[in-house]
Amino acid sequence: MIYPMYTKTPVRRKKAKPTSEVQQKLNEIYAEEKLIRIANANFTPRDYKVELTYSSQHLPQSDEEADKELTNFLRRVKRYRKQRGLSELKYIAVTEKGTRSGRYHHHLIMSGDVELFDLVALWGKGIVGSDLLIFDENGIANLVKYMMKQLKEFIGRKYKRSRNMIVPEAKKRDNRFSKRMIVELAKDTENRTEYEKLYEGYHLSKADAIFNDVNGGVFLRMRYYRKEAAWLKRWGSRIQKKTSRPSCSAGQPSPKDNTRSSR
Question: Is the whole model's pTM more than 0.70, yes or no?
């Protein structure tokens, strides 16, 4: 991420809003990118994307009740793994509330090595959808983005994650790029050649820009992957085939990829 730095703190006008629309957008991006880094650092193609839905007789009646049901499920999974000598559970979880139906369901990224049948039993509230994670040149960034979007209809608007996660530290390099260079790069975020000159040994996956019309600032967000990591995608595909498993309980159809819901 490349963004402008200011030597002086701008004076806020009396009637200015506490947070501008652009700043709010940037805050959302910072939070999303942090979670993407955490997800990519902690999960592999052997881990799962899981969706938990409720049968009619178990429907939560409030956000608090839905959150409690999710917490209890995670406790049961932790206990299950510990009893069987499996690695400690790692997870990222969000709760979604349907905009029209008002029905709750939960999206998770979690450690693998648990059979679907056992996940269904541990949940015990309805249908379980489960697939192996699918990695691409963005890792599982698209899945994380999808999960973050689901929080908008949930009052808490907070995701859950286990405390045992690796949290990569963001490195800062001030004054590396001039404003002129950033403006030029922002004009064409499809110019792969120019972006790859910035970081040798990496391929560009994607780039986008945000412009602040108030102060003329430009914010760039790029995602790269190592050139020698091209084999990883092929390896991940082989893992998917070798460890194929039923994707959903109760005869539900399989989601085609990480970002589609099994509803």
Answer: yes
